[in-house]
Amino acid sequence: MTLRRVALKVDCDTFEGTRDGVPRLLEIFAAQGLRATFYFTLGPDRSGVAIRRVFTRPGFLSKMIRSRAPSLYGWRTALYGTLLPAPMIGARCEEAVRAAARAGHETGVHGWDHVGWHDGLDDMSREAITREYGAAHAEYLRILGVPARSSAAPGWTASERSLEVQEERSLLHASDTRGGEPFFPRAGGRTFRTLEVPTTLPTLDETLAWPALSGGDAAQRAYFRSAVRGTEVHTVHAEVEGRSKAALLAGILDDWKSDGVEFVTLSALAREALARRDRIPEREISRTRVSGRGGFVTTGWPEAARAASS
Ligand SMILES: [Zn+2]
């Protein structure tokens, strides 16, 4: 029988998600007795800019996201950076960040300005990327008192330049991409030595937009229950599973637990891979689409990324 394991990666993208969603997730994880890896966005929350764009973009996916955006994210978040000023997440959520670390979870850097990175990485100069990424690491260090050993790119958006900047930190691993197994990324003729541990499962904010799973929580639970085939990395969002979808997440975790799925951490998966370093594949990074998400994500395993989202 194949070993079925899940590493939970928690992306904290917004102010309200970090302030309210993180404490809720800490309760859920404590009740389950499991450890996760939290990635924090620490600069301005300009979610309103991204949400406004969804409202002005035509197409089915936009319609699906549009109909759910206010209930998923909350109306204040939908206005941050547009009609309401953008709150600085690190400065205002220190307690939530520290609480996650204190509870024994792994922590790392998600980014500084999530929307800016997700939308603009390809247009940013190397200096701008260094500044943004450096600001997030500096704020992390200020709040937690130790340097981050891991980071996860906002919106799974990475590039040759962002990997170069990331490589200058002594990280144990990064988790910037979708699909496949841990690998050393290649881009622009260079192979990077920072191990990449990809997210393998689709995210709930994607599967909620899948027409085949429109049957509510039962359909979602059935899907995630059968989706764990081997060792999986599952990304949850503090603003979604830590708020309106907390009960659904708890249900999914219950199902996995009763099926004997084991929980591991991302750093454990990284150490496991690095113990057999010569067997770690090198993979060229590219961009692909995954079902239920607008825009592109970065991947080292495009076939695996697409297969996981159908
Ligand atoms: Zn994110």
- Computed over alpha carbons, the radius of gyration is 18 Å
End-to-end CA span: 24 Å
Task: Give the percentage of residues in beta strands.
Answer: 15-25%
Give the class from helix and strand content and strand pairing.
alpha/beta
User: What ligands can be seen in this structure?
Assistant: zinc ion
Number of helices: 14
Query: How confident is the prediction overall: mean pLDDT?
Result: 94
Low-confidence stretches: none
Rough outline: globular
| DSSP, total strands | 12
Structure description:
The chain is α/β, with parallel strands linked by helices and 310 residues long. Helix content is 44%, strand content 15%. The chain has 14 helices and 12 strands. The protein has helices spanning 15-32, 47-56, 60-73, 89-92, 94-102, 114-120, 126-144, 160-167, 204-207, 217-227, 240-244, 246-258, 266-274, 302-307; strands spanning 5-12, 37-41, 106-111, 150-151, 173-174, 184-187, 190-191, 231-237, 262-264, 282-284, 286-288, 297-299. Strands 1, 2, 3, 8 and 9 form a 5-stranded parallel β-sheet that branches. Strands 7-6-10 form a 3-stranded mixed β-sheet, with no helix packed on it. α1 (15-32) links the parallel β1 and β2 (37-41). α1 runs parallel beside α5, α1 (15-32) packs parallel to α12 (246-258) and α10 (217-227) packs across α12. The longest helix is centred in the middle third of the chain and has 19 residues, at 126-144. It is globular and about 45 Å long. Bound molecules: zinc ion (ZN). Zinc ion binds at residues 11, 13, 110, 114, 154-155. Residues 11, 13, 110, 114, 154-155 line the site of zinc ion (ZN).
